[in-house]
Amino acid sequence: MKTLKNFPYKHVLVVGLAKSGTAAAHLLLDSEINVRINDLKADKESEEVQKLIEKGAEVITGGHPLEALEGIELIVKNPGIPYENPLIAEAVKREVPVVTEVELAGRLHDGPLIAITGSNGKTTTTTLIHEIIKADDQPVSVAGNIGKVACEVARSTSDEEAMVVEMSSFQLLGTETFKPDVAVLLNLYEAHLDYHGTLEAYHNAKAKIIENQTSEDTFVYNADDEKIMSYLPGTKSKQVPFTLNQQGSGAWTDKEWIYFNEEAIMKKSEIVLVGEQNLQNILAALAVVKTIGISNEAIHQVLTTFAGVKHRLEYVQEKNGRFFYNDSKATNILATSYALRSFQQPIILLAGGLDRGNSFEGLAPYLSNVKAMIVFGETADLLKETGTSVGIKDIINVETMDKAVTEAYRLSNQNDVVLLSPACASWDQYRTFEERGNMFTEAVHKLK
């Protein structure tokens, strides 16, 4: 297992354990760095914490005392902890650097580093890139916001192995020297304003993915996104676009084929993934893998078989001529609008969840193909208002996912799509969007 070499900090505070903090603490301790850990709720007697103490970590629980900053040169922060946290705010005031564990991963990994960010489509694009490289029999690992802690994965990668990392704005904000060989910026929309404060701050956090790139590196970007285009003049890296609306450069498409530069790669009709959003994700992945020299055979193999990432416009099954899709990851209006535009058939939409104070008027233009709505959770009434405003007559408010699926099936006909795409976070009724999606899938399988 690799450790950090020539690391410039000797006294590090890890704030927040969970998966990322635990992995970072183990890496730092194994690298012979003095580690103090501060976690609000961690149990000092737990096996996980005891292992860290046995390695030499000092552990502070039950609060975030400012005394924890004494002698500290660097903070490695759990991405979810806001900068308004009094301990973090004081560290920033004292000019103590605050990073996330991906900063450690970047310092540790010596092979090709491919990093993907954007408001939507990160997991699908990351997975596609990983699967295509793997299909070409090249060494590759996947990490980051996709579920595997980057600094933990980086400890076992070889010098020849590519590491494909999905990155959130929370993670990117906590980077200093992080520099991907290939950076991908998929799109920029409004999200996470409760964390970043302003839209500009959120977008600038995303743009940190290209901040340290040089002329030896590559920036794969969405040429259809005006905000992303505004960052191009400040980039030093080689620019490779992907686009649905232009032709001739980078990854692009016409009515029949997808291309890289002037080379026709494959027919769109052969691609398994549905939807315009997924076509953008495919073109982004294509731009990356062609840039690093992956074969067309590997691209074709994956795109003709890859049916999607779980909970992201995931095809569940066909039942008596009805087609069920799980898009539980659609936690905002934008993601649900993409899902709705992915189908030509009539749709029964299952939507609702945590009320964050926003209206759903922005969803109205995309409901023209929706024949019925099943609404639930805190936003049920708001979604019903929006559906009623565009003339949808069948709108049913339910309490459980089982009931939602049963009612959706009752209202459906052959060739209809039953789509779970909530447009809301899940936390009013479920612990995670994954739990919500799994309950949908289970309910579909139970249908008679």
Automatic annotation (TrEMBL):
It comes from the Bacteria. Residues 116-289 form the Mur ligase central domain. Signal peptide: none annotated. Residues 311-424 form the Mur ligase C-terminal domain. It catalyses: UDP-N-acetyl-alpha-D-muramoyl-L-alanine + D-glutamate + ATP = UDP-N-acetyl-alpha-D-muramoyl-L-alanyl-D-glutamate + ADP + phosphate + H(+). Keywords: ATP-binding, Cell cycle, Cell division, Cell shape, Cell wall biogenesis/degradation, Cytoplasm, Ligase, Nucleotide-binding, Peptidoglycan synthesis. Pfam families: Mur_ligase_C, Mur_ligase_M, MurD-like_N. ATP binds at residues 118-124. One of its GO terms (biological process) is cell wall organization. Gene3D superfamilies: Mur ligase, C-terminal domain, Mur-like, catalytic domain, NAD(P)-binding Rossmann-like Domain. It is an enzyme of class 6 (ligase). One of its GO terms (molecular function) is ATP binding. Pathway: Cell wall biogenesis; peptidoglycan biosynthesis. The keyword Signal does not apply. InterPro entries: Mur-like_cat_sf (IPR036565), Mur_ligase_C (IPR004101), Mur_ligase_C_dom_sf (IPR036615), Mur_ligase_cen (IPR013221), MurD (IPR005762). GO terms for cellular component: cytoplasm. The keyword Zinc does not apply. Its main location: cytoplasm. Cell wall formation. Catalyzes the addition of glutamate to the nucleotide precursor UDP-N-acetylmuramoyl-L-alanine (UMA). This is UDP-N-acetylmuramoylalanine--D-glutamate ligase. It comes from Halobacillus halophilus (strain ATCC 35676 / DSM 2266 / JCM 20832 / KCTC 3685 / LMG 17431 / NBRC 102448 / NCIMB 2269). The lineage of its organism: Bacteria, Bacillati, Bacillota, Bacilli, Bacillales. The gene is murD.
